[in-house]
Amino acid sequence: MPPPADIVKVAIEWPGANAQLIEMDQKRPLSSIIREVCDGWSLSGSEQFALRYADGPQLYITEQSRGDIKNGTILRLAISPGRAARQLLERIQCHGIDARLEALKELAKLSADPTFATEFINMEGIATLARLVESGTHFGEMLAFTLTAFLELMDHGIVSWDLISLSFIKQIAGYVNQPMVDVSILQRSLAILESMVLNSHNLYHRVAQEITVGQLIGHLQVSNQEIQTYAIALINALFLKAPEDRRQEAYTNPLDQHLTEMASTLAQKHLRSIILNHVIRGNRPIKAEMAHQLYVLQVLTFNLLEERMMTKMDPNDQSQRDIIFELRRIAFDGENDPTGTEKRKAMYTKDYKMLGFTNHVNPAMDFTQTPPGMLALDNMLYLAKVHQDTYIRIVLENSSREDKHECPFGRCAIELTRMLCEILQVGELPNEGCNDYHPMFFTHDRAWEEFFCVCIQLLNKTWKEMRATAEDFNKVMQVVREQITRALAMKPSSIDQLKNKLRGLNYSEILRLRQSERMSQDDFQSPPIIELRERIQPEILELIKQQRLNRLCEGSCFRKLGNRRRQEKFWFCRLSLNHKVLHYGDLDESPQGEVPFELLSDKIPVSDIKSVVTGKDCPHMKEKSALKQNKEVLELAFSVLYDPDETLNFVAPNKYEYCIWTDGLCALLGREMGSDLTRSDLDTLISMEMKLRLLDLENITIPEAPPPVPKEPSSYNFTYNYS
Fold first, then answer.
1. How many CA atoms, within 13 angstroms, populate the side-chain half-sphere of residue 364?
2. Cα(34)–Cα(315) distance, rounded to whole angstroms?
3. Are the C-beta atoms of residues 591 and 554 closer than 8 Å to each other?
């Protein structure tokens, strides 16, 4: 008979004594259980003791967290968090250097525990640490542990960052600005400044006065990628929290923009080339966190375009109308300008029609829709000014055609700008966990404009290849979108490489790819083929099921939510080889290979699993309001619900792992595997198997009939068994 659900069997350790094996009744008060354990070792003053986990983060157990204790858990009797906080607070202020160092080391470890942190903060512990930093008397390891403890304590959100003093900020900024400083101190200082900027509007201004992006550039030129990551993260934080008027001002002349201090710094050639040469093209592979920070920087840089994208053109603004006049002048300069007003107006109308505007009389009206607003006009003017020959060639070769196959440059440029804004998500905030940065955007000071120039030439080329007319406009744009997204997925390292990728993705190649993908999905629809497909499908599904279960047996590493990204905490989960138990446990760092079962301290019997839920139905997505708004995290979340009313929450590192795990868990529970990956794998494997079988049929040689024997004609019948 299984034990009651409220009883868990645990081992409790105490230094120098044999472990106690007890059955912990979860209905009893925790203080009563601790008193009983202390009595077992003849320890008095049970109120001065508490229980902690013996493995992993070794967190204190409270009435709120005791429900997480599982059968077989090893616990440790320890001094209570309040007593520990009081002792450490006294020790870090003592005169003995060695004793103080040991106390700070222990404090740095315990500060990650929310129960201990609450007690320590209530004793004015943070103020004490701040005074130690401000005194400037701590160096080396002692300072590193002090900063670590401070950051861990502040990360719990118990006290406001606004309480931080200006002298503390100056001291931390001083460590960042020093030419030679210990790596661990520099890492923690950068992380503290980033947290200040992200968590307090007031502190942003103070930090911005002490730290400039230019001062951070030196930290991007070091060989330590961790330092580079912290530096870019701080740059991103300063950029993200900069007031709108400092991030971007309204443009006066699109080719002579006066950018604000922040935008100018981020766009300057020096910073871009440093990131390109020392980070992206460095000798070390880009780690996941660095890729995320590069992605964030890319998104924030493109978001500088949002104001222009959402600005409508004022048809009555002469300075804006002059830009359109300039486009006309560059394209048709040299033609005689009629002196009469009516003649000039008629000629302009003709020119605007040849430029491909929808409104020939007043083309300013074409730029009144947002997006793309004035950003489209900026792109067109950049092409006309910087790539003048290309601009003139595109306009003239289409304006001179009379066969209805002309490509309307103006309309195409406006729609293309809108499309590029959608593809690159201009105006949207960065997604947590996304690492999708494009190296080529760091290779040019005007990467957005150059990207547009390449794509408008692609559009013109595709229009000609499709022999399109005005009625085919939307079809052409769909093909161009596919060409661009396929090319971007190949991660070209430069604008020139993007051009090469797009050259290989001409209209004929897009048709071939579509046909190939359609064949792999649909194949043939004749009855024998459909019958063959139905016979093959159960075998293929079983094959996919076994592959998913094998992957679960190998296991995967997951990142814990709610932690600073550059001090990541991980946990690992894998299925037992007999498919009966899920093993999981915390890790100090991301593993390089398979993690042995012995290192995974927790487990869930598969027989206890009730269901698997995904997305917004997950408990951890309902709890975290910030994450509920993050579509990317929501799409990667899933939870295992198991008896009695417990959950194991996951956020997959990518869509592939999400599909593998949700499919594998469904297969484990005997339910249908319904992910996009399974449908794709099923179609691909069935198509491959069908083609192999049909190929065998085509390669069978039917023997020639022997010479006929009079009065006994020979007959050869050939049938192919699809099974």
1. 16
2. 78
3. no
What number of CA atoms fall less than 13 Å from residue 466's CA on the CB side? 26
Report d(CA 223, CA 283) in Å as an integer: 9
| Structure confidence by residue, pLDDT tens digits, 73-131 | 999 999 999 999 999 999 999 888 899 999 999 999 999 999 999 999 999 999 999 99
| Nearest Cα residue to 420 out of 355, 364, 356, 376 | 376
CB contact at 8 A, 79 and 67: no
Residue with tokens 């797009």: 502
**Domain 7-79: CATH architecture, name and number where available:** Roll (3.10)
Fold of 537-680: PH-domain like (2.30.29)
The secondary structure element, H or E, covering residue 584 is strand 581-587
The average pLDDT across 700-718 equals: 40
* Distance of alpha carbon 306 from alpha carbon 303, whole angstroms: 5
Structure tokens at 300: 């924030």
What is the DSSP track for 609-672? EEEEEEGGGSHHHHH-HHHHT-HHHHHTEEEEEETTTEEEEEE-SSHHHHHHHHHHHHHHTT--
Question: Cα separation of 37 and 97, whole Å?
Answer: 36
Question: How far is it, in rounded angstroms, from Cα 474 to Cα 157?
Answer: 51
* φ and ψ of 23, to 5 deg: -100, 110
Separation CA 649–CA 638 (nearest Å): 6
Q: Tell me whether domains 7-79 and 537-680 share a fold.
A: no
Give this prediction's pTM: 0.73
Helix axes 507-522, 473-489, angle to 10 degrees: 80
Distance CA 678, CA 551 (A): 14
C-alpha distances (whole Å) from 532 to each of 488, 523, 582, 722 are 38, 11, 37, 6
One-letter identity of residue 713: P
Residue ranges of the domains in the chain? 7-79, 160-285, 309-518, 537-680
- Tell me the sheet residues that pair with 492: none
